[in-house]
Structure formats: C-alpha cells, structure tokens
C-alpha cells in the first residue's frame, strides 16, 4: 500500500492503529520529502467482500459430521 502526501511525494507509515469496535484502521504517516516535513494520519476501512472467505464457522461442524461414520466403520 502506498500513501502519498498532499505534496505528491511518498510517505512512510510509522504506525498502524486498528480501532476497536470498528473495521477502521489509522495509519500514522510522514512525508519523505525533507522540504515538506508533513506528518499526518490517514485511514483505511473495510468496505465489502468481492469474494467470500472460505473459512467459515460451519466448516468444523462439517468435518465433525464426516468423522463420525468413519469411526463407526472402523469398529466393525
Ligand atoms: Zn509532503
């Protein structure tokens, strides 16, 4: 991720603060142009998914259900 200063120069991200109770994150930045010297806070936030995660809470339940018939078959 590249954050630009208002002067157009690249900035360095010094610290990332994930805000509690929010998907927002603050980026503490400073300009790389020594003549500018601007320090600022920029923000990043989650907007929406473009592809849903394959990791869901339903997955452990599916695994548990498929293990049970195998355990019964081994008992024969
Ligand atoms: Zn600048």
From TrEMBL:
<protein>
    <submittedName>
        <fullName>Transcriptional regulator</fullName>
    </submittedName>
</protein>
<dbReference type="Pfam" id="PF04606">
    <property type="entry name" value="Ogr_Delta"/>
</dbReference>
<feature type="domain" description="Zinc finger Ogr/Delta-type">
    <location>
        <begin position="6"/>
        <end position="49"/>
    </location>
</feature>
<dbReference type="InterPro" id="IPR007684">
    <property type="entry name" value="Znf_Ogr/Delta"/>
</dbReference>
